[in-house]
Automatic annotation (TrEMBL):
This is Altronate dehydratase. InterPro entries: GD_AH_C, GD_AH_second, SAF, SAF_UxaA/GarD, UxaA_altronate/galactarate_dh. Pfam families: GD_AH_C (PF20629), GD_AH_second (PF04295), SAF (PF08666). Signal peptide: none annotated. Keywords: Lyase. Residues 12-83 form the SAF domain. It comes from Sphingomonas aracearum.
Length: 494
């Protein structure tokens, strides 16, 4: 039997196994072939020739670390013999790359809700947002009762709870307020009820003051310390919002009205070969149509950041990308942590060895789109093209930041699987067909089919699925009622 492997670039000195390989088994990777000297699991790397101690190990055409000792041809390349070369902050030079022509095939429209300010939602829901964790359960009870009362009139009523909003100071409190304000202004919410306690640091008035004037008719507020029966009052306010939101109807719009958030979580060695490149093609398709794409998880671009920097629209955007990346590295260093403290145990088990390798796979989600903007945590997208968003790699925190920034759908690639869902439709894309077959209750699309059908055909199928979901088809997470938010806590707690 011959095991199949993929050599991504002609200059790579490793290949990635597409199936488990036993010791002594021949391995074919395109025009390269070796005999495995030991067992190598699917998604892991095998040396295509001898690699000397200290020599760069190359995958995706870029270094993913250095050999910690001499590695023989056919040997398993992983944590025992490969280490990161990442250190601290760096000086960067702007070397702009030529923009590629956007693809023009596949779905070009979806049916969305056109809001008065011109933005387009993929859902028409009522969101209940607590200002503080003290009223989280109150918000959930109001949402549950309202959802039952108004079923079928709108796409749903959902509470998004969190434990923050009090005992916070400065920028830490500001981050909580910014995320909640941005969610209150989201086009997927036809109406929003903001539930406060009354005595918290995160005063309801601060959120209202930051909302655009045009959004305020679609927002109601409830201060529970001042209400006689907060449950009844909350349900009454949601009923008002349902009356407004239920008048909206889906309309045919172009892909230029879509805002995609792109995310990976529980990645494996195949994520950078199947799911992430496919999502990159979706990014190119939407950005090429004039739409917007949001890429975050900034610590998971370390080692691949120059690729994004070279795609900056101009030197000003380049400088902001440099500031974002080095600022995040400094955040790690100031807390006494190395910038390379990644991948996770699940990533390692799936075949990813260093942060450079993980990052080179992760940045593919941005495709070849021009980087047109850089925004801070809690900021909102305002330009077409690819926007880099400040947020960590944590799945819940970064996906919440994507939704708050205006993503109306999130493409979430995974090699290990996760049930998590977020305020906007979260499309789970499996990097391998085994995961898709084992966890159909979690997975919306099998990117593993690209290994047989090719990236082009699989990309067209994924684009069609995204258009259907943007037009109202439920994701697995929505069917499972998996909808969460998580806020980045960065400061002291009083």
């Amino acid at each position: 039997m011959v095991a199949r492997a993929v050599r991504v670039s002609a200059g790579d000195n490793v290949a990635t196994l597409l199936q488990d390989c036993a010791a002594g088994e021949p391995v074919e990777a395109g025009d390269a072939s070796v005999v495995a000297r030991e067992a190598v699991p699917r998604g892991h790397k095998i040396a295509l020739g001898r690699i000397e101690a200290g020599q760069e190990v190359v995958k995706f055409g870029f270094p993913i670390g250095r050999a910690q000792r001499a590695i023989g041809e056919g040997e398993h390349v992983h944590s025992a013999n490969l280490g990161t070369a990442l250190a601290g902050t760096l000086d960067y030079a702007f070397r702009p790359s030529a923009p590629l022509a956007p693809p023009s095939t596949g779905a070009t429209t979806f049916r969305g809700y056109v809001r008065p300010d011109g933005r387009v939602g993929t859902r028409n829901e009522i969101w209940v947002l607590p200002t503080v964790g003290c009223v989280a359960r109150t918000a959930q009870r109001i949402a549950a009762a309202a959802a039952a009362s108004h079923a079928g009139r709108i796409d749903g009523v959902h509470a998004f709870t969190h434990p923050h909003g009090c005992s916070q100071l400065g920028d830490d409190l500001g981050g909580t307020r910014a995320i909640l304000t941005a969610l209150a202004d989201h086009p997927n919410a036809g109406g929003v009820l903001i539930v406060g306690l009354g005595c918290e640091e995160n005063q309801l008035s601060g959120i209202l003051a930051a909302l655009p004037e045009a959004r305020r008719p679609f927002v109601r507020t409830l201060v529970t310390q001042l209400a006689g029966d907060e449950q009844a009052e909350g349900e009454r306010l949601v009923a008002e919002l349902v009356g407004i939101a239920s008048q909206a109807r889906r309309e045919e719009v172009g892909l230029d009205r879509l805002v995609l958030g792109v995310k990976c979580g529980g990645s494996d060695g195949l994520s950078g070969l199947t799911a992430n490149p496919l999502v990159g093609r979706m990014s190119d398709r939407v950005a090429g149509a004039g739409g917007s794409v949001l890429l975050t998880e900034i610590p998971e671009v370390f080692g691949a950041e120059q690729i994004l920097m070279n795609r900056a629209a101009d030197e000003q955007v380049f400088a902001r990308v440099v500031g974002l990346v080095n600022g995040f590295k400094r955040y790690f260093l100031d807390h006494g942590q190395p910038v390379s403290e990644n991948p996770s145990p699940g990533n390692v088990a799936g075949g990813i060895t260093t942060l450079e390798e993980k990052s080179l796979g992760a940045v593919q989600k941005g495709g070849q789109a021009t980087v047109t903007d850089v925004i801070g945590y809690g900021g909102q997208v305002s330009r077409p093209g690819l926007t880099l968003l400040e947020a960590p790699g944590n799945d819940a925190v970064s996906s919440t930041a994507l939704a708050a920034a205006g993503a109306t759908a999130i493409l979430f690639t995974t090699g290990r699987g996760t049930p998590l869902g977020f305020p906007v439709p979260t499309v789970k894309i499996a990097s391998n067909s085994d995961l898709a077959a084992r966890k159909p209750g979690w997975i919306d699309f099998d990117a593993g089919r690209a290994l047989e059908d090719g990236l082009d055909a699989t990309a067209e199928a994924l684009l069609a699925r995204i258009a259907a979901i943007a037009s109202g088809e439920e994701t697995a997470a929505e069917r499972n009622d998996e909808r969460e938010i998580a806020i980045w806590k960065r400061g002291v707690t009083l």
